[in-house]
Amino acid sequence: MDMGVFIPIGNNGWLISEAAPQYKPSFELNKQIVQKAESYGLEFALSMIKLRGFGGKTEFWDHNLESFTLMAGLAAVTSKIKLFASTAILTLPPAIVARMASTISSIAPDRFGVNIVTGWAEAEYSQMGVWPGDEYFGYRYDYGAEYVEVMKELWSKGASDFQGEHFKMADCKLSPPPEGKVEIVAAGQSPKGMKFAADHADYNFIMGQGVNTPKAVSSICDRLVTAGQDSGRDVGAYCLYMIIADDTDEAAMATWEKYKDHVDADALAWMADQGSKDNAADSSATAKHINLPEGAVNFNMGTLVGSYASIARMLDEASEMAGVKGIMMVFDDFLLGLDKFGQQIQPLMKSRTPAQAAA
Q1: How far is CA 181 from the centre of its chain?
Q2: What's the rounded Cα separation, in Å, for the pair 304 and 209?
């Protein structure tokens, strides 16, 4: 099973809490994180794209780097780990993203991929005048499908005459081609999002649910397997969990409770407002999943809290779900958390090979 890290391209990572580590994003921090992940044998690192923060006392995600330029820099200082950059598809034309991906692949041959972000927070885009209107919520995956088709055509043929509803190419050229396959990842949770991933992506990120319930998303993984079978494609699930580990279950849980007790309520209120704008969203959609201000100190993502042995056991349990090909992790403290994973947790995991566990 692959293991990866969702790197902190925005300030404070994924904890919306006044008690959590407070830090700004930087290339140096992310370089240390990705190089450490690579040294422990992790297979991939992914950076999000976020264009407007949530505010509040912690100024949550008010400070962000840009995904492609960051990953280009990280490509030059790594040698094995796969890197995924994210494109907010309303902001960058597919032909430009295809060319950026081809360029980064020349820095990191056969280890670069693109994460497709259709967008759920209207304020990120209206601030720049690129929001098409709330009707976009209804066709964003059709828009995304054409976007990916244009990129794949350019990568495979070096030219595109694609004629769709949203994109029209006229002998559009791309050369040189990528060095190796550029894999596509998505993060659709709704039926439409799942079908998009099954039709166009190589992996689909699935946000875990609950605390210490690693298999809570088994039904979502099952839906991805079914969608892949319907599309005739092999699309693997990468499940997302926050890891909070310590010497004992009690010590780890005390840390988790501290984060929850000091949640940044103002930042959560902004997030809830943005998540409520898509009135037609399916109950399983990402916007609905995070539109829960009470207790959403880490977006209500799946959270594994416990001793090193407990975390190893729960990660192994997650690996047993149908269709799961990997786990993407976030940490409360990324550098310390990666050391805990690499030195204390990974060697105890049955789902990692001896070589991986010994990395």
Answers
A1: 19
A2: 10
Question: CA 335, CA 261: separation in Å to the nearest integer?
Answer: 24
Residues 6+ apart with CB under 8 A from 314: 212, 214, 304, 306
Residue 259 identity (one-letter amino acid): Y
Q: Which of 327, 276, 312 shows the shortest CA–CA distance to 46? A: 327
Radius of gyration of the chain (CA): 19
Measured N-to-C along each axis, helices 94-107 and 136-157 cross at an angle, to the nearest 10 degrees, of 50
pTM comes to 0.92
Tell me: the pLDDT tens digits for 27-74? 999 999 999 999 999 999 999 999 999 999 999 999 999 999 999 999
Distance CA 34, CA 347 (A): 19
* Cα end-to-end span (Å), the chain: 15
Take residue 343 and report the two structure tokens written for it: 């030195």
